[in-house]
Amino acid sequence: MDAPTDPSALERMLKKPSYPIGDDLRDYLRKYRRERQLPVTYEQLRHFQDTIPLTDAAGRNTLWETVIYPAAEMNALNEGLKRIYALLRVDGDASVMEHLFIDRVDFCAFGNSTPFRIRIVNAYNDNQDYFYVKKADASRVYGLELEHLLSPNRLNFLTSGNTLIEEHIAGIPGDIFIERWLRNKELKPIRIAKELVKFNERCFVRLLGDMRSYNFVVVITPDFEDSQIRIRAMDFDQQSYHGRKSFYLPQYFKDNTPLTLFCAQHLHVKTAQQYQREEQTLILQRAELSTTRLGLLLDAMGLDTLAPPENVVSLREGLADHFKSPSYLGCETMGALVRENLKSLRRTLGHATVPPFSPAS
Fold it and tell me: HSE of 35 in the Cβ direction (CA atoms, 13 Å)?
């Protein structure tokens, strides 16, 4: 078992490079109607005039700034953003979007994607929604599509050249959940623990890294008895990039230690293994339901460069040792490692693939 370590301060400061969308991935996106002609691009949104710091409800500064564009450009820009929202939500039927208006465009210089967040409001009832405009990055696109195919969550996103459009993923940010909700007596600890096991397994199998508490959300759904819990990734930048195996296990991040320890207190090892087995089975069922589509995605991913060669070598050695399988050592790309992980899951179904709840020290 790996020593549970958190990324160093240097790793936190270094940004992952952006990888371009290759021809095979672009063909895949066109085939499944992800690639569309968009009226507004990421580069166009970068031409703002000024910014105003955005504060939260308590008056504290956030990492976001509201951007201001020249008055002469606003009408065309707003109409273009409304059309993008229509493409994202109703396949472009603008007739059902006439009562919506763009309320605000925010920009965040923090992180790899430096995204724009668009706030769109219903004029009849003031209900708001959001979507994001980002620089297209192959890692992020693969992460979004793998989430769509292998997790219980469906995702809407669009690409157009170097522009990526993502829908908003609603939920309680993980760090806020840990701080304010973790010990809420209205939530059953066993349901929180069960979902962490399942989330941990999903990230590990499809190699989604960096699931620190601020990169996932917790969704609470009231049920006829108590509430159901689901943990959802909301940042896919670190899909299959890092070379260390533990980077793909949310339980090992120091930010998540309070959650991991809480769950360890309320979950027997045998029960954790049962929940792992359940999620492994569901992942394989989802893979079988999308055999052709997933195969095409992994074909493209297997040809793409998504990480430095040394990261691939380090990760394949770690996975080969973990699964006691030399077949990993022949993998030359991150896409090949994701495919091998799914093959390994089929071979070893019935055995826990990750020691349950070993938090960062």
Answer: 15
Q: What percentage of the chain exceeds 90 in pLDDT? A: 84
| Number of residues that make up the chain | 361
Structure tokens at 189: 């600890």
Q: How far is CA 325 from CA 225, 294, 341, 343, 344, in A?
A: 43, 23, 10, 11, 8
For residue 195, the one-letter residue type is E
- Return the HEC string of 265-299: HHCCHHHHHHHHHHHHHHHHHHHHHCHHHHHHHHH
State how beta strands 227-233 and 163-167 pair.
unpaired
Q: Given the structure tokens 């160093």, which residue do they identify?
A: 8
Tell me the Cα Rg of the chain.
21
Any idea which residue has 């623990």 for tokens? 193
- Quote the pTM value: 0.91
Per-residue model confidence as pLDDT tens digits over 218-277: 999 998 888 999 999 999 999 999 999 999 999 999 999 999 999 999 999 999 999 999
Short-list 263, 217, 251, 200, CA closest to 359: 251
Query: Do the Cβ atoms of 228 and 190 come closer than 8 Å?
Result: no
Using DSSP's 3-state secondary structure scheme, residue 161 falls into coil
Give the C-alpha separation, 337 to 230, whole Å.
Answer: 26
Contacts of 224 (CB under 8 A, 6+ apart): none
CA distance 20 to 331: 21
Describe the strand order of the beta sheet including 163-167 as a list of residue ranges.
Answer: 50-55, 61-68, 100-108, 116-122, 128-135, 163-167, 157-160
- Residue spans per domain, the chain: 23-167, 171-348
Spatial separation of the C-alpha atoms in residues 253 and 250, rounded to whole Å: 6
